[in-house]
Amino acid sequence: MKKIGEFFDKKKTDMKFKRAGRGVKLNESTPQPSTSGQSKPVAPRMQPTTSSQMAGQAALSRLTPGPGSARPGSAASASIKAQAIAQLENESERMKLSSQYQSGAAAANLDYNDSQAALLVSGVNFRCRCSMRLKKPEFEAHLTECLLMQLADDPPSASATMIYTLNKDKDKIRIGVDTICKYLDNVCLNPGEEKYRKIRANNKAFQERVSGLVGAEEFIQAVGFERKILTHEESETDFFVLNEESASNIDRLISFKELLKSGAPYKPVLDRDMKVYQPSQRASQFQLPNEFYMLTPEEIKKEQQLRAEVIEQSSVLRTKAMKEAEAQKALRRYRYALIRIRFPDGILLQGTFYARDKLQTLKEFVQSQLDNSWQPFILTDPSNIKLTDDDMMLAELHLAPAAVINFSWDAEVMADIAAASQGSLQVTYLKPDAMRQLQLL
Fold it and tell me: 69 lies in a domain?
């Protein structure tokens, strides 16, 4: 009989080949999680709270036929009943708590009840290339300092990045870059002619197209132009002068030109602000700051009402056009999405995303924190629908501005692992490093 360790090694290898796809080498593609089936370890169920029971009774009362309602036994009535039952089951599922966390909460004398105020999310943070964590309003000033410091180490790259990052007018950036490239082209075509190696600082074209751009003069000097005072029309004037040796190195000048033309603005990296929470009845409670929305304060006040309408509409048959229209509204409404991933043991993994981030980005975040990252998993939305379209944006999937989604291991793979473990299987989810960040919600 094979050892369990050998079985897991073989299983990991099989999954890598399965993810790689037909005819693709393992080192040439990123593994994609399988989405076939799901399985949840059995856990003890707790009694729903009083408010949950009232919500369930209200849902079931809607099944009572009235004037113009669906007839008992009809397809519409069966569908509504199924949705009501699913809502009750989902509520019960959210109430699951492992015994160790129950005792921990009791020891801390914590009282999680439905009347408690919703959790306040502190806000959105970004990371600079120097690893500093900042709010967006603070980021521009900080980035300017970073780029100026980088000038000492890599003047051409830093100054090119400054041009694209610290100037807002894209047309002026394009004109300035084209002008500098023209200067370099003239030198490359005429390296021996002195007039092409000099740029007069008060020249009208230079003043209008280049001088006003942050980082432009720094780039010119990084190429090798030196600032000098020369006589021009019987007066002393500032010039940028390239010496003969630098002008003769055509390959170097061409590389600088390509560096500038291929430049791009440095954008702040959204900090996932990862958090890991103990099981909590407050998992679905959110109070988000205004920066999550692309709305006026008045429109934000209507957000709760709009979300209630979306929940009500979820039981109504909608056409594809209606769904697409709703998705477009969501894209215009939200900037960010706060996602909590609930694991079968009740643990919550939280991360911050752009509302326009694709589902694949969310899956990669989850996979990066899994103890068995090779193992395929399933994500389901609050309506218990599998999330399978990796190219759809979070807002399109109705996961913005905030949502709790559910995680489970792929059922087929779990069945194979369980059979090989012969009853000694211990299901794990998050990495030990992630679990060390566990905190109360």
Answer: no
Please give the DSSP secondary-structure letter assigned to residue 255.
H
Give the separation between CA 269 and CA 77, rounded to whole angstroms. Answer: 48
C-alpha to C-alpha distances, 335 to 25, 322, 394, nearest whole angstrom? 37, 22, 11
Helix (H) or strand (E) holding 127: strand 126-127
Which ranges of 25-151 does DSSP label H, i.e. alpha helix? 50-61, 75-94, 99-107, 136-150
| Residue among 199, 200, 197 at smallest CA distance from 249 | 197
What's the mean pLDDT in 188-209?
91
Token pair, residue 269, equals: 């990296």
Mean of pLDDT values over 204-230: 93
Q: Is 276 helix (H, G, I), strand (E, B) or coil?
A: strand
Residue 115 has what pLDDT? 32
What is the distance between the terminal CA atoms of the chain, rounded to a whole angstrom? 46
Residues 199 and 226 in one domain: yes
Say what the pLDDT of residue 297 is: 54
Task: Show the domain range for 406.
Answer: 33-60+74-124+272-439
- CA distances (Å), origin 429, targets 99, 316, 348, 440: 17, 36, 11, 18
CATH number, domain of 118, equals 3.10.20.90
Last residue of a domain, one of 215, 231, 261: 261
Residues 358 and 393 in one domain: yes
- Greater confidence (197 vs 90) lies with 197
pTM of the predicted structure, to 2 decimals: 0.62
Asked whether residue 420 is domain-assigned, the answer is yes
